[in-house]
Amino acid sequence: MLLWLITIFFLIIYAALIAFYSFHWKNLKKTGSKTSTPISFISVVIAARNEASTISELLRDLQNQDYPSHLFEVLVVDDFSTDGTAGVINQFQNIRVIQPPGPSHLSSKKKAIAAGVEYAKGELILITDADCRVQPGWISTIESFYQKHDAVFIAAPVKFSYQNNIVELFQATDFLVLQGITAASVSANFHSMCNGANLAYTKNAFYEAGGFEGIDSVASGDDMLLMYKIWKKHPQKVFYLKDEKAIVNTEPMKSWKDLFMQRRRWASKTIHYDDWRITAVLAFILFFNAWFFILLIAAIFNSSSWILVLIYLIVKIVIEFPFVYMVSSFYKEQRLLKFFPLFQPLHIFYTVFIGILSQFGKYEWKGRQTK
Questions:
Q1: pLDDT category, 269, cuts 50, 70, 90?
Q2: In terms of DSSP H, where are the helices of 121-217?
Q3: What whole-number distance in Å separates Cα of residue 99 and Cα of residue 97?
Q4: CA dist., res. 343 & res. 171, Å (int)
Q5: The whole model's pTM is what?
Q6: Rounded to whole angstroms, how far apart are CA atoms 93 and 63?
Q7: How large is the average pLDDT for residues 182-209?
Q8: Which residue ranges make up each domain of the chain?
Q9: Strand runs labelled E in the chain
Q10: What's the average model confidence in pLDDT over 349-366?
Q11: Which numeric CATH code is attached to 31-157+198-252?
């Protein structure tokens, strides 16, 4: 009876949380057509390390923007690449290239971004990654939103490009849910979430918040930890931009090993959150998914508990599916819906074990190890 009561309790709280996200996703209006005249000078900052195979596509996308060319610059921070990244960048005109200060072995993505912000000429900084693709209206859509809302920080949509293999389909499906939660939580001013592949913030806000000071030693967090620092200074000027023209495409990990290393690095910043709101949500999600393993153990010793395991899985899928459907429709990725139920056991497993393992060990990014 106790297992039933606890399971019902978890499912009720989880249903309320997903209903909250669904409500705010649905009520987050698309930005619509651009109405303002471009007036802001924009600095696009890209931290690049060993991206010779991908960065040329992004730079071509940036050369094809519909934003006036005299009103933006592209600044690539070559973070001591060893694969010829600099040579690829030099094939493009009007691209500013710098290196972070200090020796290579003490550099990091945060230091690269900070160097880019320092040298940026624009008041509004757009951040993306060197392996991403952006649409022709990316800059103009963000700049128009910035003008309209007088924003100091803008989180914007990201999705994975993917092939038809299990590891990439899983990432695309899982990331879709994360993006929906990101949009809903930011629009509700509930807790801070974003992805470093598609961000915008003002130079003044970056320095007013102290930049990456205090979080520079964390393996990840150049996005969410910075976002919270800025939110504390300007809680009413942090926004999510919901517009198809602002979607950035990024590459998934190509193997399970790389995926788990990436997600461990992402999750390693959890203990560094000062925002109790997201800490509380993440703790509940961890316990909610860990409960599945408790039910499995109970079922091994008592066969009657298998019905509870099945109920847990089915109800979890039913709770999440309407939300996932709405988000997938925005991203035009409805084809992923058929994989969503199939990936549930894998998602539960990876959520629990990544959440635990992320707090231990070292993490590798672009050939560098960080704690």
A1: low
A2: 138-149, 166-187, 203-208
A3: 7
A4: 10
A5: 0.91
A6: 9
A7: 95
A8: 2-24+276-359+362-366, 31-157+198-252
A9: 42-48, 72-78, 95-98, 124-129, 153-155, 158-160, 199-202, 238-240, 248-250, 363-365, 368-370
A10: 73
A11: 3.90.550.10
